[in-house]
Amino acid sequence: MKRIVLFLAVAVASIAVEAKTLVVYYSYTNNVHRIVAELTKQIEADVVRIEPAEKGLDYAANNYAIGSAQISAIRSNPDDASSYPEIDAVDVNPADYDCIIIGAPLWWSNMAAPLQTFLFHNGAAMAGKKIGLIVSSASSGIREVEGDAKRLIPDGVFLTPSLWIRSSQTSNAASMISEWLKAINYSEISGIEDMSPDQNPAKYTIFSVEGRFIGRDMLSLQNLERGLYLVNGKKVYLNN
Predict the structure, then answer these.
(1) Backbone CA torsion sign across 149, 150, 155, 158
(2) What is the pLDDT of residue 190?
(3) Of 87, 84, 79, 141, which is closest to residue 113 (Cα–Cα)?
(4) One domain for residues 152 and 187
(5) Residue 38 lies in a domain
(6) What residues pair up with 25 in beta bridges, in sequence order?
């Protein structure tokens, strides 16, 4: 077989890469924990669980009086850091991710206070990020939780719809999550990004030694002993 010599002219282009997803959640009764466990069976993501700094609190006591007081403090002065309960330090930078999915329990119509603390301190780093919201509640609607998320992440790009899983539906979380991921087009969100020219491996125009145009496509150099291949697997030449 005649060996074809190629000249490769570089041009600017986009290439498919995998976007990074972060799942951050808080769970007292473990409903949200079970939901996140189902979610991470369906997507690749880093996961962070938020924990209150003060241990041993019985949030369920006296009709969830502690949580009610924390939510009341945030409502009274949402711009004051002292209104938010302290949480354990979290070694994660949301700016490193393209998509952030928040798993939130509902407390007194609002987002659980410890999770609000995390977003209060990290919301600015989520500017321009795609934000998905999954809410667990016994019965109340999730409008106020969505409002909390948008207040705390004012420059986030929120994916719609949010996913509301009632406590009684947790056992059906797998199918509900699957449908939600389709509804927000997660496969497109996580699969393709445009790379800047200085990051781009390149798109090439291909010519034979005689100068005859052969084709134009993304190139991948695979197994040089056998030859040069296009990304789609088409063989350009073989060494004999």
Answers:
(1) positive
(2) 80
(3) 84
(4) yes
(5) yes
(6) 49, 103
User: Is the separation of the CB atoms in 87 and 114 below 8 Å?
Assistant: yes
| Extended beta strands in 18-111, E state | 21-25, 46-49, 99-107, 110-111
What are residue 52's DSSP bridge partners?
A: 87
| Residue 55 tokens, joined | 């241990």
Residues comprising the chain, all counted: 240
pLDDT digits (tens, 9 = 90+) for 32-65: 999 999 999 999 999 999 999 999 999 889 988 9
Give 9's strand partners: 205
Give the domain range for residue 139: 21-191
**Same domain as 117, residue 85:** yes
- Nearest Cα to Cα of residue 119 among 69, 161, 72, 154: 154
**Of the given ranges (104-118, 176-190, 208-222), which has the lowest mean pLDDT?**
208-222
**Residues β-bridged to residue 206:** 8, 215
Q: Is residue 134 part of a domain?
A: yes
The alpha carbon of 139 is separated from its chain's Cα centroid by a whole number of angstroms, namely 27
Number of domains in the chain: 2
Dihedral of alpha carbons 6, 8, 9, 11, sign: positive
% of the chain at pLDDT higher than 70: 72
The more confidently predicted of residues 196 and 159 is 159
CB 77 within 8 A of CB 48: no
pLDDT at site 189: 87
Q: What pLDDT is recorded for position 100?
A: 98
